[in-house]
Amino acid sequence: MSRAVTAGSVAVVILIAGALVFVWRAQVDSSRATLLVTVAMCGMTTVYALLTLGILLENRAMARAATDSTRLMERSLRFSYAPNLLFRTLDTKDPTLQARQGFTPLDTEDYRRALADYTPGQQQTEFVFAVVQNVGRGSATNLTIDAHYNIWDSSSRANRNYSVDKQASIQLLESGKAVALFVHVSRVPTGDDRVDLVSANLTTSDFYRDALDEPAVVVPIDPEKHRTESEPGCVVQIA
Fold first, then answer.
1. SS3 201
2. What is the per-residue pLDDT across 113-160, written as a single tens digit (0 to 9) for each?
3. What's this model's pTM, rounded to 2 decimal places?
4. Which domains can be identified in the chain, with CATH numbers?
5. Phi, psi of 79, deg, nearest 5
């Protein structure tokens, strides 16, 4: 109970007690005694109202504290289950990505065709992937990758400049894991070859959102700010 309500209640009780002592000791007529009794009853009613107000204020404070505690717990749970996805474009000479722990190339038709011509240990062919890595504490669920690239390939006589759309769906991407979506293979790479990201979106959820039946989150990737990585010896330009 608040101090102001307590102090007010004590003051009213003192006044009522004083009034009763005054009536008991003083010689007053019946009309004045009735008036004093009425005043005492009003005082008692005031005390009851103050006590009720104090209880209401205390209940309100407890409800607010419970709400704040619930919100803090919810934020903690969301943080525990929330993934953190990093998108980047990778140029490598190893399409299997065996040297990268936790990286898994997605088994698409384009990837299988590119892998069919790969000879381990060769030093020429370069492979470009769109990589999504989960560096958060929780797993990503129902992840969808949608990326659009422009490609300049000097070794292609028929079509030196073209665009590709790459999509993939992953049911679960655990914390610390990464998936690589094949984008392009350059079998005779030169410094004039380029792979540029035009646009990309990640659609994802997590176990907490799934439990609450909340909609998935769409994460747009800014082509001007997205991360690129070229392994040593690679010459294809990526942006």
1. strand
2. 988 878 777 668 999 999 999 998 889 999 999 999 999 998 776 778
3. 0.69
4. 3-81 (no CATH), 85-238 (2.60.40)
5. -65, -35
